[in-house]
Structures are given as structure tokens and as C-alpha cells.
Design goal:
This protein is mostly helical. It contains 10 helices and no strands.
Amino acid sequence: MELIFKKKELKLLAERYEYQSDDILNEITLSAKCKKYLTKEEFIKFCYWKTPRSKPKVAKNDADFIKEITEISFVTKSDKLRIEILTLLDGVRWPTASTILHFCHEEEFPIIDFRALFSLNCNVKPHNYNYSFWQKYTNYCRMLSKELKLDLRTIDRGLWQYLKEYSRKKQK
């Protein structure tokens, strides 16, 4: 993995990020970090924020199952269990699982997204995501975060925004 643009551009790209606000997740994030699990309503909001089309599938999950799965994910010391257990929930794949960890876990985790991966010259398709790949992606994003002194949300936004701007330029 390697950025396909200059590292110093990442912060500027993040500042131009114009997709959607995280504001609707702020209260849920605080609540989840305090109680160490998600309620069904909170879970559905996170999933909808990441992938609106998943709402019918995620709504099928039992409230107790959501609580138990998210609680295990938020308290385990195993990164592998932390991410993979979330994918047991209906409608949750790696991008949504990483979103939940990104906002709800005490540690910082990046959101895995094909747009961000494009910015890293990485063409792995979502159906091929696995723990080993996610771990490499997480480590790379954390390294960027440390090196550039930016939080992971800023890294995510910058990586995401690059593809949006690149696509616009390509269309012209």
C-alpha cells in the first residue's frame, strides 16, 4: 500500500471532504464507548450511515444478538475477533464492521472503503477482504496518522476525497 498522491495533500483533501456529516453519530459514539455495546437502534443508524441499502438486512438482527456481538467486539483484546465477530450480524461486511469500530472503539481504527483503497493504489475487491488485509490497511493508516500527526478520521476523509476529485477530473 502506498499513497498515489503526495502525503502533504492528505490534510487538504480531508478539508474538502463533502460527503456526509458524522454529526448524527456523535451521540451514539459517546454512548457506545461508555456502555461498551450498541443497541439495535444505534446499530441500524451506523449501518445506514455507511451503507443505506443495508437497512432491511440489518433490521432483521435480534436486539440481544446485536448487543452481545458488539459487546464482545468492543471489549476483546483480539483485533481479529474484534472485527470478524461484527460480520456475523446480518448486513454487516468489512466496511460496515470497520465503521462501527472506527466510531465506537477506544482504539483508533480506519474505515475500509474501496474509495480509500483506490487512493492507496490497492485494487482488492470487497468480497476479498480478510483479516490479514484489514490488518495491513489498519497498520498503514495508523502509520500515516502518526507520521502526519492527523487523526484517523482525517486520514479516512482525505483518502475518500481523493477518488471523488480524481473522478471529477477524469470526467472533464
